[in-house]
Design the sequence.
């Protein structure tokens, strides 16, 4: 089973390949199976939805157009395959599916990607993974201590490894697995079991799906990739890149939102710009308020499929309220929890612009006030 040291024991004691072939095969399954599943489901979605088809045509990762339930399903399938390979029976396959889905669920609760070291979500993430590692290992008759140390150490070291590897998918995966191996060994378990446990954390929590495209958001050379973001900064915590994007520079005029705008993860603005372009393309050429409404509607449908983003959210006097309530303001996109937004995005088309007065009006009604950046999104020309 996944964390049972006996799974990786070679009875002869001589063959290294015998010890590592199952973990390696499981790792391949963990990466490939969710991506294949995502491609199949995305193709089905695209067949009946021109907006999704347009988005996929831009080169977007298939995982981003799936609902949260669909993402969980394909990730569980990857865990099922990996568990079946390492354990060789249906029980280990089911436990693998649970571990994969739980890792994804931890990411949903505390955040995918890189978390700020020292933040509450970071500690919650580390503790949750340690508990999961302990539980899975114990369920297999192994050591709770080794499972907890492998998973906990991997999660704790995640942001550091991402910084050292510049968020390279393969280097990050290798680094996490090395830490998981060391943690398991320190806890009395096997290196192979710890490495597999760390891979679950990395692929299904940090990377939200298993593949390089999921983890790095865009393939090399595309919008949002390291090649396209040479102008990145590092925020005060040093663990999350920020980009001098057009939206960030525009926020300088507002004073209170300027610093916050520069701390927003660069890929969010890039993703929303791509979605705005796909929405505009699906509607076709046009102008005026009616055209803008059509684009907003198509844009909202795309945004609703992206994990961590919420479309068409209304606030009044710092409280979340129903859409259409008198006196409330409606936000096109909210990043983070609706009750504690990290950033807000306002879609504009044609000659409309996000003015300082509008930003101030929005910040007066949202939780967090002027600390929450408000950023303009516009379809690319």
Sequence:
């Amino acid at each position: 089973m996944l964390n049972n040291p006996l799974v990786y024991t070679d009875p002869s004691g001589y063959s290294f390949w015998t010890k590592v072939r199952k973990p390696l095969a499981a790792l391949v399954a963990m990466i490939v199976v969710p991506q294949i599943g995502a491609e199949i489901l995305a193709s089905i979605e695209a067949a009946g939805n021109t907006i999704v088809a347009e988005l996929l045509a831009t080169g977007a990762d298939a995982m981003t157009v799936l609902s949260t339930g669909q993402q969980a399903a394909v990730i569980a399938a990857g865990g099922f395959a990996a568990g079946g390979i390492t354990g060789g029976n249906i029980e280990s396959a089911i436990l693998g599916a649970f571990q994969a889905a739980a890792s994804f669920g931890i990411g949903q609760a505390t955040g995918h990607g890189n978390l700020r070291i020292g933040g509450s979500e970071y500690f919650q993430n580390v503790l949750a993974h340690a508990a999961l590692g302990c539980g899975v290992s114990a369920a297999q008759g192994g050591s709770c201590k080794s499972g907890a140390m492998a998973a906990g150490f991997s999660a704790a070291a995640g942001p550091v490894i991402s910084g050292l590897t510049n968020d390279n998918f393969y280097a990050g995966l290798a680094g996490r697995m090395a830490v998981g191996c060391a943690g398991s060994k320190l806890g009395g378990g096997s290196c192979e079991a710890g490495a597999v446990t760390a891979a679950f954390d990395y692929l299904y929590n940090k990377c939200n799906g298993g593949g390089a495209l999921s983890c790095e958001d865009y393939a090399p050379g595309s919008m949002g990739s390291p090649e396209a973001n040479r102008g990145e900064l590092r925020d005060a915590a040093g663990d999350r890149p920020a980009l001098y994007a057009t939206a960030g520079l525009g926020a300088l005029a507002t004073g209170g939102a300027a610093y916050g705008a520069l701390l927003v993860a660069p890929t969010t603005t890039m993703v929303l710009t791509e979605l705005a372009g796909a929405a505009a393309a699906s509607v076709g050429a046009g102008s005026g308020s009616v055209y803008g409404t059509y684009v907003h509607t198509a844009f909202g449908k795309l945004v609703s499929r992206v994990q961590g983003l919420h479309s068409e959210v209304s606030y009044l006097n710092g409280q979340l309220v129903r859409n259409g309530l008198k006196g409330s303001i409606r936000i096109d996109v909210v990043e983070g929890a609706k009750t504690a937004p990290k950033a807000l995005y306002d879609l504009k088309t044609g000659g409309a612009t996000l003015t300082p007065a509008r930003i101030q009006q929005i910040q007066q009604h949202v939780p967090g006030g002027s600390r929450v950046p408000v950023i303009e999104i516009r379809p690319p020309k």
